[in-house]
Amino acid sequence: MSKTVVIAFANNKGGSGKTTTCSNVACAMAAMGKKVLMIDGDMQLNLTLSYFDEEKALEFSESGKNLYEAVKNEKDLSDFIVETGYKGLDLVPSTSLMSSIEFDLFTKWQREFIFKKCLEPVRARGYYDYILIDAPPTLGGWVMNLMCASDYILIPVEASPWGLFGLANLFEFYHKVKTLAPALKVMGIAVTKADERKKYFKQTLEILSDLKDAKLFNTYIRVDSAIEWSQDNSKPVVAYRKTSRSAIEYTKLTKEILAYGNR
């Protein structure tokens, strides 16, 4: 039985490209023959909408086939997995009800480990090579839950003047989580929305390269309109337009992630 690797894509700053990175890395992994489960941990449903239209996403919400129902009732996540239509790639959808998950967790015993308890049966089966979690842009009890259930954190960072804002808070939060989950590691930082013509792009790379808490992935994702078109069509760009610049870059980033896991 193979070991399932769990990676949480996290950044407390919105607009970092976190969901886009999670959805495209997952799809690229599946295209490379890996079995992957995505978990949409955000009330905005963006990861779910990366693979399904609004009508289908609403159906998941109304039918109870979503992450909120699983975590609130402390159920095995196996019963909440849906197929995406891509071979080897499945999803646990989200719902807007996730907006109240912090409140629902507050009175639970060992509340930091509720999600880990729900995920454990899926992980124990060893069917999936990777489980990728899209965390919301917050630093609260729910994100702590997601991190406690993960092996690694992957941090997408937007290459903009405000892209680094809050990164220190994220690392401070990470070190707090490590007191509960000592094995948790930062896999690396992936730079997104890069524009090589801008001065702050080089500044961003220089600052991130000097960080002691995390390595910087060699591949960065440049600004590309193909990403917006793919989102409008509820598809990851690596499937929507395989020859686009961003699709090629996300594929390269995925290879770096897989190489890390095989070290």
Could you explain how this protein is built, in words?
Helix 1 crosses helix 12. The chain contains twelve helices and seven strands. It starts with a strand and ends with a helix. The protein is α/β, with parallel strands linked by helices. The chain has one domain: Rossmann fold (3-Layer(aba) Sandwich). It has a seven-stranded mixed beta sheet with strand order 3-4-2-5-1-6-7. Helix 8 links the parallel strand 6 and strand 7. It is globular.
Could you tell me the CATH topology label. Rossmann fold
Distance between the termini: 18 Å
CA-atom Rg in angstroms? 17 Å
CATH architecture: 3-Layer(aba) Sandwich
Strand content: 5-15%
What is the percent of helical residues? 40-55%
The backbone outline, from C-alpha atoms, is globular
Which structural category do the helix and sheet elements fall into? alpha/beta
Number of domains: 1
The tally of beta strands, per DSSP, is: 7
| Mean of pLDDT | 92
Largest sheet: 7 strands, mixed
CATH homologous superfamily? P-loop containing nucleotide triphosphate hydrolases
How many DSSP H or I helices? Answer: 12
CATH top level is Alpha Beta
Stretches where pLDDT falls below 50 for ≥5 residues?
none
SSE pattern:
EHEHHHEEHHEHEHEHHHH
Widest beta sheet: strand line-up: 3-4-2-5-1-6-7
What key phrases describe this protein's structure?
263 residues; alpha/beta; Rossmann fold; 7-stranded mixed sheet; 12 helices
